[in-house]
Amino acid sequence: MNRSTGTSRTWKTSHGGRTVRYSKTYLEHFQAPRNIGEIDAPEGAAEAEHKGGGCFDRIRVTLRVRGGLVEEANFKARACSGTIAAASAGTEWAAGRPLEEVARVTPETLDDLLGGVPEKKRHSVELVAEALRLASADALEG
To answer: Are 1 and 17 in contact, with CB atoms under 8 Å apart?
Structure first.
């Protein structure tokens, strides 16, 4: 049963009937993700993968960089809701930022952008932060 609780919604999981809270921002990015796709001839690209805990998420991030700024960031993923939400928020955040700043993104940054993620989705923000850092490093080397 879904019910609105202001900035978050409550979903009952199938894991022992526990209640897990997802922020409104998390749900928006999962239900209508931004920046899906791949940039042709990107300046930076990287793949990252998570295996464990029932999730086998894989993400590819591509970056277009001009004048030291990330002009565009896109992603392709085969992933759970957390990784899709984090990739959407992370690529949206990266666009317009200095490449060096994107190269230092942390899971905490993505967690904050999403209004928090449940502990069972922590791997998602870690995976997306890793992919953004690796794509940034690729662009910096190029």
So the answer is: no
Global pTM value: 0.87
Round to whole Å and give the CA distance between 102 and 73.
Answer: 10
Q: Give the pLDDT confidence of 79-102 residue by residue, as tens digits.
A: 999 999 999 999 999 999 999 999
Instruction: Show the domain range for 47.
Output: 25-141
The CATH number assigned to the domain holding 111 equals 3.90.1010.10
Q: What is the full DSSP assignment across 116-134?
A: ---GGGHHHHHHHHHHHHH
**Domain annotation covers residue 77:** yes
Summarised one tens digit per residue, pLDDT across range 108-131 is 999 999 999 998 899 999 999 999
